[in-house]
């Protein structure tokens, strides 16, 4: 733990994925061997010195009913509910990496934010960089599996512009009570405009173990993300999009990094001007239960142990490192942009290197006790715990200050701790009709003393047809993210924001198999934000946002269905939050089961939002910034798709941005929409993907 951990991501990822593919291949080949040949290799049959051994006699084995099938499910780290892998067709975004209701800056892998505004509800320390969160693996989204046979799922998506996405999932039970697996994802997206390439790599190893008598349990997670995204600052002039000589969008001038050269090679995605974010997490959790023991005799040789916990001791240790870096290998070519946008003056010296960086290490130890009041109902419990957090940060400005006319204030290391008290009450009744949850945490001492998070919800299952209804309340008091602290290298005006944000969220929802609706109100005081591309501020008034969301599935006729999503959100008064009043997504889908094993879903996917003033984007800070000068009014986004599944093989085809067709200068797809001021989205994109899941 104390030693310095360095990850050379590219080589590490390549080695890891090669080893994983090799192990999967060996396991798969062994599973396909005839039984006799497999037994020879595994040493099940034995003969001695030229004669027949004792094991040559005919024997009978108890048949394993699960030998020809697979049972697989998973849980998230703090979830009490089992979930299953989703194989539904008709929504390409489930297989891709961009959620349907997110806006990105014109290329997969680049900075993005959700159409539906969601405040940051994390208390305590937060670095403040969230524009690339959808491309990261995280602890909350890690799935811990149980499976009766080894399972592998491979996904590959190839898109226009030489974009490639590779996903690998492998999980298997080493023993009936011990599972381990790996996940890997690679995103290579050169982009359609200059200096727009992205190259992301994610890897995680996960394992969970439960003792034979179900008293001891352990979870292990090793996870790393490397996110690399070039920043071009947007195009210089919107009129370039209509230039018939610039149908190849790489030749349109951009504000940053334009002299780095045009990159057409999908396997050469070096970042010359842009952001590189890396992180590593090692988490280990173990628990031991005290309670009532029982068992069931299955047959003469098999006994199933049962255990009803009454009291649990739990410890979790987490070690993490983070690095957030912006660099420009040839900043002298972008001196005017740095001067005009960020008030940074650079001397015209050749090969000027400019970068800023924040690096962090953290170690947390959490001790919890959990008591189960009702025997045979582990979904009713009371939990109390204490967590000790230790942080160490280092902040660096340009390594070559001789090229800077404006000298950054000195940056120093920072070390601090937090002591956090937390508790939770959960009661999901045995008839599954009521589910009450009350939890909270309070920072009693340390750097973020006074931060707290309180959450309460009540859910009622009406019946199988009507589904459930839920009401919830959450109040969060949190210090602004560390990027708003004057010590951060990314706080270029060194203005520390000191007032805690206070966020209140009140929500009500109803869900069943045909529709889901939710109404929510968000209120924020002392809202922290970037008021310019580099200057920070806190809003003095109240930010109040009312939101309504609905999703429905309607059968039109036969195999024709309409899936509809609606979002309505309204902000009160003049505040820094920018959202469209109305957003909708409509999927008209012809779908069904044809022949014996063929499932098909094909149709149109249309998205539209009303005109609004979207956020600008700050390349150095990696932040979205409110602006009041540009209104964006895009045509509805129209995509066509064809998805099919034959047993465990899934094929995907999607043609995006049919709405960008242009006939004034010949037939082409150059009528680009905009994601933000100066950031056009691509024209026609064709995506082809496959997903194959197989049992070893």
Outline the structure in words.
The protein is mainly β. The protein has one domain (9-36, 71-695): Maltoporin, Chain A, CATH 2.40.170.20. The chain is 6% helix and 48% strand. It has a 22-stranded antiparallel barrel. A two-stranded antiparallel sheet has the order 1-4. Strands 2-3 form a two-stranded antiparallel ribbon.
Question: CATH homologous superfamily, by name?
Answer: TonB-dependent receptor, beta-barrel domain
Largest sheet, in brief, is: 22 strands, antiparallel, barrel
CATH A-level architecture: Beta Barrel
Q: How many discrete structural domains?
A: 1
Terminus-to-terminus distance: 36 Å
CATH-defined fold name: Maltoporin, Chain A
Low-confidence stretches: 1-13, 28-63, 399-410
Mean pLDDT, nearest integer?
Answer: 86
- Quick one: how many beta strands? 32
Content-based structural category: mainly beta
Please state the overall shape, judged from the principal axes of the Cα atoms: globular
Task: Evaluate the radius of gyration.
Answer: 28 Å
The proportion of residues in beta strands is over 45%
Number of helices: 3
CATH class: Mainly Beta
Helix content: under 10%
Give me a quick take on this structure:
With 696 residues, the chain is mostly beta strands.
List keywords for this structure.
696 residues; mainly beta; Maltoporin, Chain A; two-stranded antiparallel ribbon; 32 strands; disordered N terminus
Secondary-structure blueprint:
Elements: H1 9-32, H2 35-42, E1 72-76, E2 102-104, E3 112-114, E4 143-147, E5 151-159, E6 163-175, E7 178-189, E8 198-210, E9 216-230, E10 273-297, E11 303-328, H3 335-342, E12 354-371, E13 380-396, E14 414-428, E15 434-446, E16 452-463, E17 467-478, E18 501-511, E19 515-525, E20 528-530, E21 536-538, E22 542-557, E23 560-571, E24 582-594, E25 598-609, E26 616-618, E27 623-625, E28 637-646, E29 649-656, E30 674-676, E31 679-680, E32 685-695
Antiparallel strand pairs: 1-4, 2-3, 5-6, 5-32, 6-7, 7-8, 8-9, 9-10, 10-11, 11-12, 12-13, 13-14, 14-15, 15-16, 16-17, 17-18, 18-19, 19-22, 20-21, 22-23, 23-24, 24-25, 25-28, 26-27, 28-29, 29-32, 30-31
């Amino acid at each position: 733990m104390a030693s310095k951990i360095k990850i050379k991501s590219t080589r590490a990822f390549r080695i890891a994925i090669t080893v994983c593919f090799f192990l999967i291949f060996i396991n798969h080949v062994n599973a396909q061997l005839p039984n006799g040949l497999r037994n020879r290799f595994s040493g099940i049959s034995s003969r001695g010195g030229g004669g027949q051994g004792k094991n040559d006699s005919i024997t009978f084995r108890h048949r394993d009913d699960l030998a020809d099938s697979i049972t697989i499910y998973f849980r998230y780290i703090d979830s009490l509910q089992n979930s299953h892998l989703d194989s539904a067709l008709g929504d390409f975004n489930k297989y891709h990496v961009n959620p349907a209701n997110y806006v990105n800056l014109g290329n997969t892998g680049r900075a993005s934010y959700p159409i539906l505004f969601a405040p940051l509800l994390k208390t305590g320390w937060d670095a403040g960089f969230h524009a690339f969160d959808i491309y990261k693996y995280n602890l909350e989204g890690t799935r811990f599996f149980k499976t009766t046979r080894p399972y592998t799922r491979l996904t590959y998506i190839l898109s226009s512009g030489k974009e490639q996405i590779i996903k690998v999932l492998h999980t298997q039970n080493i023993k009936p009570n011990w599972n381990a697996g790996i996940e890997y994802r690679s995103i290579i997206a050169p982009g359609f405009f200059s200096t727009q390439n992205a190259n992301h790599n994610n890897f995680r190893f996960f394992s969970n173990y439960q003792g034979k008598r179900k008293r001891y349990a352990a979870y292990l997670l090793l996870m790393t993300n490397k996110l690399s995204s070039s920043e071009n600052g947007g195009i210089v002039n919107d009129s370039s999009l209509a230039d018939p000589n610039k149908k190849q969008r790489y030749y349109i001038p951009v504000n940053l990094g334009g002299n780095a050269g045009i990159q057409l090679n999908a396997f050469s995605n070096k970042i010359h001007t842009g952001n590189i974010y890396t992180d590593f997490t090692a988490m280990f959790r173990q628990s031991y239960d005290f309670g009532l023991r029982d068992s069931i005799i299955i047959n003469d040789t098999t006994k199933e142990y049962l255990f009803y916990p009454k009291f649990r001791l739990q410890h979790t240790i987490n070690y993490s490192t983070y690095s957030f870096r912006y660099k420009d290998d040839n900043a002298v070519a972008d001196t005017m942009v740095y001067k005009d946008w960020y008030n940074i003056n650079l001397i015209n010296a050749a090969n000027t290197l400019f970068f800023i960086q924040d690096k962090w290490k953290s170690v947390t130890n959490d001790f919890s006790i959990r008591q189960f009041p009702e025997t045979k109902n582990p979904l009713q419990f009371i939990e109390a715990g204490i967590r000790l957090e230790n942080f160490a940060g280092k902040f660096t400005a340009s390594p070559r200050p001789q090229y800077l006319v404006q000298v950054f204030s000195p940056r120093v290391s920072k070390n601090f701790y937090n002591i956090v008290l937390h508790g939770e009450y959960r009661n999901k009744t045995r008839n599954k009709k009521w589910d009450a949850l009350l939890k909270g945490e309070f920072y009693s001492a340390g750097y973020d003393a006074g931060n707290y998070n309180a959450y309460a919800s009540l859910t009622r299952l009406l019946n199988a047809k009507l589904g459930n209804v839920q009401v919830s309340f959450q109040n969060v008091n949190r210090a602004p993210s560390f990027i708003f602290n004057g010590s951060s290298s990314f706080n270029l005006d060194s203005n520390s924001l000191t007032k805690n944000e206070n966020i209140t969220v009140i929500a009500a929802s109803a869900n069943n198999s045909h529709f889901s609706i939710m109404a929510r109100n968000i209120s924020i005081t002392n809202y922290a934000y970037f008021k310019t591309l580099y200057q920070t501020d806190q809003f003095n008034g109240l930010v109040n946002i009312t939101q309504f969301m609905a999703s429905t599935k309607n059968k039109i006729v036969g195999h024709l269905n309409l899936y509809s999503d609606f979002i309505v959100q309204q902000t009160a008064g003049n505040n820094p939050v920018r959202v469209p009043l109305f957003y909708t997504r409509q999927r008209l889908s012809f779908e069904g089961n044809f022949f014996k094993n063929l499932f098909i879903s094909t149709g149109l996917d249309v998205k539209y939002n009303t005109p609004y003033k979207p956020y600008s984007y700050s390349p150095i800070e990696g932040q979205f910034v409110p602006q009041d000068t540009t209104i964006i009014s895009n045509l509805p986004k129209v995509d066509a798709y064809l998805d099919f599944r034959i047993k465990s093989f899934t094929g995907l085809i999607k043609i995006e941005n049919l709405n960008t067709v242009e006939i004034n200068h010949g037939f082409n797809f150059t009528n680009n929409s905009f994601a933000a001021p100066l950031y056009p989205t691509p024209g026609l994109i064709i995506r082809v993907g496959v997903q194959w899941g197989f049992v070893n």
